[in-house]
Here is the input.
Amino acid sequence: MTTATYTRFRSDLETYFDRTASKAWEQLTSDAPVSGIRATVRAGRIEMRSTLMSWLPADMTGLRLLDAGCGTGALAVEAAQRGADVVAIDVAGSLVEIARKRAPAGLKIDWRVSDMMDPALGRFDHVVAMDSLIHYRPFDIVDVVSSLAERTSGSLLFTFAPQTPLLTAMLGVGRLFPRGDRSPAIIPVRERLLRTLIRNALPKAGLGRDRRISASFYTSHALEVLPR
Ligand SMILES: C[S@@+](CC[C@H](N)C(=O)[O-])C[C@H]1O[C@@H](n2cnc3c(N)ncnc32)[C@H](O)[C@@H]1O
Here is the structure.
């Protein structure tokens, strides 16, 4: 069951990533030159992806992985190159199209345009949601995490936007711009609150590794959930 805020925010994100920001996102996730701020975001995101990949098995042959909110598909490709059978899903069809075109041939990736919560996706060994939950409210994040964790046997890795003075200040600057030029708001979340909510929702699960990456304009915190 999803909440009204989840459905509304997902629809805003679909419009934003599918139309408004599709070109910018295609460029950010490519090798094309980008300006100073975007370069720091790109570097931070590369570091985050490599952190998440380092928490997954080196050989993923025969393992099923969900890239939840895959965007242009870099993580899906890396997991498939390790042998995983990947389902890569995103609500933004134009990004999935870019991902499909970029991916090398011969990898086992099932590209889909839909909601990551779709129960028809079945069960997974590992789920990764990199920066795809940062625009949702804490209670909605925890709903998604617990629903996906129930279908995951190995680990569920996700990132959130940590509530730090720096991030709050940067988001404040963003609010000075006209509404139409802005992305849907990133919602900073207190780490302690998130951990408590996850423990309450998933009392049997363990909380494993975590890592915060702050690279100038990119701040994101990864958390490993170990369903049992
Ligand atoms: C900041 S981008 C990150 C994309 C990718 N994970 C990466 O790190 O490059 C967030 C993505 O999550 C997708 N997204 C957000 N909510 C989603 C949902 N409920 N189901 C599927 N995709 C979703 C957005 O469309 C967007 O492409």
Summary: The radius of gyration is 17 Å. The CA atoms of residues 59 and 82 lie 5 Å apart. The chain has a mean pLDDT of 93. The helical segments are 4-20, 22-28, 36-54, 74-81, 93-102, 138-149, 165-174, 191-201.
